[in-house]
Amino acid sequence: MYICLKTMRPNFHYVELDRITIWFSYETPIAFQVGGNPRVISENVWGKTTGKHLNSLDDGDRAAKALRLPRDAFTVAMGKVLGRLYDATEPKTETARTEALAGELQRIKDNVKEA
What we know:
By secondary structure, this protein is an alpha+beta fold. The protein has one domain. Helix content is about 45%, strand content about 25%. The chain has a five-stranded antiparallel beta sheet with strand order 1-2-3-4-5, sandwiched between helices. Helix 3 packs antiparallel against helix 4. The longest helix has 21 residues.
């Protein structure tokens, strides 16, 4: 298993866990990405500094902000992704796991749009 922690700037870090990258503002996860799939980014429910961190991940324009997930949906999505990372019943190949995670993320995003 590959694990790496990197600091992008003060209070802004990311962790790579095999094929999953998680970005943190201070100690709070604010975005994640599975393989080459698009980043999943939380809405800003904190303050200016975290807002700057979020904007650096998606350019922070109106269209990008519209794609950010509500905090509760983001937390559920990240929990599912991390749960699958260690689930022995998951597909065994890297490609199959990444495709399964991408499908799950799309279902979560579709549910948020419908709500």
